[in-house]
Amino acid sequence: MIRRTFFIWLFLLAVAPAWGQRWKIVPDAGIAWKPGNDIPHEDHIEMSGERMAFVLRWGVDAQGAFREERSLVFPLLRTVPNDTHASLMYRMATDIPSLLGVNGLSLCRERVESVSIDGAMTVRSLWSVGKANTGSGRNTEPVPALAMTRRIFPSRTLPLMCERYVLHNIGTKKLEIAVPEFMQTIATDPEKGVEGSYRIRAELLGSGVFALAPSDSLVFDAVFQAYREDEKPLRPDIAAELAARRDFVRRQIDAKLILETPDPIIDTEFRFAKLRAAESIIRTRGGYMHAPGGESYYAAIWANDQAEYVNPFFPFLGYGVGNASALNSFRHFARFMNSDYRPLPSSIIAEGSDIWNGAGDRGDAAMIACGAARYALARGDRAEAEELWPLIEWCLEYCRRRLTSTGVVASDTDELEGRFPAGDANLCTSTLYYDALLTAVHLGRELGLKTAQTKRYVREAQALATAIECHFGADIGGYRTYRYYAGNTTLRSWICMPLIAGLTERRAGTVSALLDPELLTEDGLLTEQGSTTFWDRSTLYALRGIYNAGEADQATDLLHRYSQRRLLGDHVPYPIEAWPEGSQRHLSAESGLYCRAVTEGLFGIRPTGLKSFDLTPSMPTAWECMALRRIQAFGDDFDISVRRMSASRLRIDVTPRKGTPLSFFIRPGTTVRVALPTR
Q1: Domains (ranges, CATH) in the chain?
Q2: What is the value of pTM for the model shown?
Q3: What is the pLDDT, as a whole number, of residue 17?
């Protein structure tokens, strides 16, 4: 049955419109593109390590040659003024192949054979060699061609961008290869650096003149780095750096939280999203800080990107640095709790030494309470939960004190910070507060809070649910859904938020509004009906909401089309921030939201204790089975598999690595409470 379903999906993919599909999935090796009639082509991708990141602007021109520009970011080298965007940044377009000599000639007429992405970008090309003139007007015979492989990746722990070049003699004659001694350095203006002048350095490692016999290969490296004036440049082992990057991808990302469905596009995009969410964590003076990226946002934390979006995901992946960054972010926010209940900062910047609060209160306390409570339960660590409880409790009280006369939460704006109107009280903030109250009830009971306090949270959540319906419930554009704020008359993508929080009064109208042409485009949901702007974060929230509303077929259709666009289209391979703002940057927290559309949407996992969760799988009718393996949440390591026994019956197996397996037989749409064994 599994094979039959798989081939049905392959047939659907074959007959469905490709709408710009350029790439193909390579099993166990990421995605690949073979240029043909679809050039010229340009794209950009961000990759990150603990001490640097880069955005690679790359392309293949009309003649088939590879072009790249490296936008280097060094978050720990701070510039003046030391604000949100004060990472040292520099762009380099140094053309490494043009520096080489082959038999005294230059390389020319490059033809890219393939480009692949799998934790690194790999470019394979064929080259000819320039012809020397004999002086008699005739050219010498052409020198046999070379094959070149570039591998482009960041160091895991050092401030390095690495490019490993492998030259392979594919001809029949010996070649003399000259790799020059090359070093390019730039000293920045000392007045523009927090610690004075910085050095940015490009260098070739492995220079010399080499005889390359037919079928033999030669390896050399290009390294891009930056350092303080009083420091010396690093002399790294690039083979070890590449091995460390591969080990990170295989052991930390691929070996945990593995999605298995009949849809290889969703499975592969989930794998890529895990990597992007986890790789972008900077080791700052203020501890590990998850970085959105995008040549703007590093060495800092935000109430939405980190506290709300990505932190609740990390326990499921079980990546230790990710969990450390989540806990660290909550600790930073907790520094600003105060007895007067003044707003928490929206962002803590400059490695924790300053704050940004330029948009006022965006509903940040609701974001933090919701994210911290979900993280604490999913993490399954009592000591961490007890440490986080005062912050959660403070944020809930802050929101309670901000209730308006109609019972919803007032805020100056929302997470879009005034880009679109949000009124004096918006739907997003109130639903996040509602979700936080529900989660805090479970966490409070785990921590042994007095019953009176948890019962009060239950009453406050019930009152807020009524207020949300009364204040925001409305008919907009013919749909029985929600207005985003008082006076709002157009559909907004964030009407999905009540579905996330389990508010189902207007479920049918809201799902219809989200999936109809007023909001839905090939790139996901428009922020507002009638606009051309989209932000992936609201599309990814909507996917969770549509699954939670019990519309598995419609949600999976959207998830498949969205994944195909992001993974195999013209701009790959991760979820993006927005358009036109930021030119569709690969901000990393959006990848965390993609993963949560699977864990909390498709599988319907909602934490209810340090060792327990509710499970409401939403498997589409075209699938016979799906599984999520090596889940690391709730202090455990376990699998969840769902199999269709009949049209009205599902079998769920929850299998811990240690302990007794659990099995449930349910009707589709039913919720079961799973209690993992306590060791």
Answers
A1: 34-237 (no CATH), 256-614 (1.50.10.10), 615-675 (no CATH)
A2: 0.95
A3: 37
